Every structure is written in structure tokens, then in C-alpha cells.
């Protein structure tokens, strides 16, 4: 299978110090201080072999995140823009959904307590958390001491098949009834960025009280998702501020479409 792989040179800036969790020459939490001369390569890779707790997914939809772009963009000295956890080479793509084509015996769906089945539609968390360290136990898996990230430090979904431990998977089959198969996969690929917005405005930002007014600065996908989340949370007015004319138009178009199709959301909200 072909995979879209990002590669770059490990060439730390003079002020960079290897962190306690960094691995010299391979992995860092400060990508923009280390990785130089990024380039995208399309390479031939073997289909991954799932272990007993893994599921093999045929990718059906995968978004392009701002961080995907920032891993390829570089400053004048050639260092990548993206400042976070990275280990290259890695197949990019972390906002995805797909169909299960193989499931290990211990690949349990935590939603049902049963083994995942071939043919189920799923999306996946991007953070590969360990479950046993203190931040994980405290309910902050994104602060995991042994964190890996799909599409950043381990292979992601810009390819045909991806292997993921079942604990990071969520079934999305119920979306088919509402939206049809194709839209189901597209919406499945939006779960991860929408979760980013949810975590920001509800979990970490503390949410709002019903009837409050909200201003969101930035109408990119995450800002638009935050807008939707806060409307559901009971905001009286959500004002979206966006300097780009084309993006403003896109968002006001979504608003008109959204109004007309509001009832489609009713089974869940
Ligand atoms: Zn992302
Ligand atoms: Zn952990």
C-alpha cells in the first residue's frame, strides 16, 4: 500500500536541550526546535499486521489538520512550524474513519464490552495513551507520560490500512441511518477535531451557563466546531470573528444550511 510519509532531518537548534521524554535522533516534544528540511514522500509500505488487541481499519476518510500543514511548512532556517510531539519518518493523517477489516480476539469495543467485528465503521482517538501513568489515571490521557500520537510520532492514516489498538476506537455506525454511508465517514473524520474544540471550550475552558453570549476568535474548523458545541451547550448568541473573507462566507453559508437541517440532529440532542 502507498503511504504519505513526512520525513525531516534531526538537526537541533543551538538552544535545544533534550527533554526527559525525548529520544535523541528520533522523538521530541519540541518539533520546531529540532526537525529541519521537511519533505513529503509517497512510499510503499506493508499492510500492518494487527496484534490480539488491535483492529485493522481500511481508511475511508481523513482530514487535513493545520498541524499536518505546519509539519511541512518551515521557517527561513528550514525548521518546521509544528512545535509539538513528533518522530519522523511518520505517515501523516490523524482525523480519520474507516471500516474494520480484521479484529484481534482481544479487540474489545469498550462501548459494548464485545469484540469488534469486521465491517463495523469506526473512528479513532489520535492520542495513544498508556492508561497506567498518573496523568492517564487522573483523567488527562492527553498528558500521558508515555504519549504517542497517530500521524505525528507513529504512522497515521494517509494510507489504505491502519492498525489501531481497540481501546482508542469508537463505533460510528449509527451515523449511517441519519446521513448515509459517505457522510458517515466524513463526519467520523471530524470527530477528532471536534473533540479538540470540545476539550478546549468545555473540559479545559469550563464551559458556559445556558443563555450566555460567546465570542470565538477564529473561524477555522476548530473555531467552527467550538461554535457548534457552545450552541448545543445553550449559548444565547455565538459570535464568530474571522479575518478571512472567504472563510467568513463559508461559515455564514454553513449557518444557513445548518438552520434548514436542524431537525436531523434531534435524535441526539
Ligand atoms: Zn489535528
Ligand atoms: Zn499514560
Protein architecture, described:
The structure is a single chain. The protein folds into two domains: 2-189, Alpha-Beta Complex (Quinone Oxidoreductase, Chain A, domain 1); 194-265, Rossmann fold (3-Layer(aba) Sandwich), CATH 3.40.50. The protein has helices at 66-72, 134-137, 174-179, 181-189, 191-204, 221-232, 245-260; strands at 2-10, 27-28, 35-44, 54-62, 86-87, 90-91, 96-103, 108-109, 114-115, 121-124, 127-128, 148-149, 161-165, 169-171, 213-217, 237-241. It is of the alpha+beta class. Helices cover 25% and strands 27% of the residues. Strand 8 (108-109) and strand 9 form a beta hairpin. Residues 65, 67, 94-95, 193 line the site of one zinc ion.
Structural descriptors:
269 residues, alpha+beta, Rossmann fold, 2 domains, disordered C terminus, binds zinc ion
How would you sum up this structure in a few lines?
The protein has 2 domains: 2-189, Quinone Oxidoreductase, Chain A, domain 1 (Alpha-Beta Complex), CATH 3.90.180; 194-265, Rossmann fold (3-Layer(aba) Sandwich), CATH 3.40.50.
Helix and strand layout, with pairings?
Blueprint lengths: L1 E9 L16 E2 L6 E10 L9 E9 L3 H7 L13 E2 L2 E2 L4 E8 L4 E2 L4 E2 L5 E4 L2 E2 L5 H4 L10 E2 L11 E5 L3 E3 L2 H6 L1 H9 L1 H14 L8 E5 L3 H12 L4 E5 L3 H16 L9
Parallel strand pairs: 15-16
Antiparallel strand pairs: 1-3, 1-6, 2-5, 4-7, 4-13, 7-10, 8-9, 10-14, 11-12
The structure holds zinc ion (2 copies).
Amino acid at each position: 500500500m502507498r503511504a504519505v510519509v513526512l520525513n525531516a532531518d534531526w538537526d537541533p537548534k543551538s538552544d535545544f536541550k533534550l527533554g526527559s521524554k525525548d529520544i535523541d535522533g528520533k522523538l521530541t516534544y519540541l518539533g520546531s526546535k529540532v526537525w529541519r528540511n521537511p519533505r513529503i514522500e509517497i512510499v510503499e509500505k506493508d499492510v500492518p499486521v494487527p496484534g490480539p488487541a488491535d483492529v485493522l481499519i481500511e481508511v475511508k476518510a481523513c482530514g487535513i489538520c493545520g498541524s499536518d500543514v505546519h509539519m511541512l511548512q518551515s521557517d527561513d532556517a528550514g525548521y518546521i512550524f509544528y512545535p509539538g510531539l513528533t518522530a519522523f519518518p511518520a505517515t501523516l493523517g490523524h482525523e480519520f474513519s474507516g471500516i474494520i477489516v480484521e479484529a484481534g480476539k482481544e479487540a474489545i469495543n469498550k462501548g459494548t464490552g464485545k469484540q469488534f467485528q469486521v465491517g463495523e465503521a469506526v473512528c479513532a482517538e489520535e492520542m495513544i495513551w498508556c492508561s497506567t501513568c498518573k496523568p492517564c489515571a487522573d483523567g488527562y490521557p492527553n498528558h500521558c507520560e508515555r504519549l504517542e500520537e497517530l500521524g505525528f510520532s507513529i504512522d497515521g492514516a494517509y494510507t489504505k490500512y491502519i492498525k489501531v489498538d481497540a481501546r482508542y476506537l469508537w463505533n460510528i455506525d449509527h451515523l449511517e441511518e441519519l446521513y448515509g454511508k459517505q457522510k458517515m465517514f466524513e463526519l467520523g473524520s471530524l470527530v477528532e477535531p471536534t473533540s479538540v474544540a470540545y476539550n478546549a471550550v468545555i473540559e479545559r475552558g469550563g464551559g458556559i451557563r445556558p443563555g450566555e453570549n460567546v465570542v470565538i476568535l477564529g473561524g477555522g474548523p476548530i473555531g467552527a466546531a467550538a461554535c457548534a458545541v457552545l450552541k448545543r451547550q445553550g449559548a444565547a448568541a455565538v459570535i464568530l470573528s474571522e479575518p478571512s473573507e472567504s472563510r467568513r462566507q463559508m461559515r455564514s453559508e454553513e449557518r444557513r444550511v445548518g438552520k434548514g437541517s436542524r431537525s436531523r440532529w434531534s435524535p441526539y440532542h
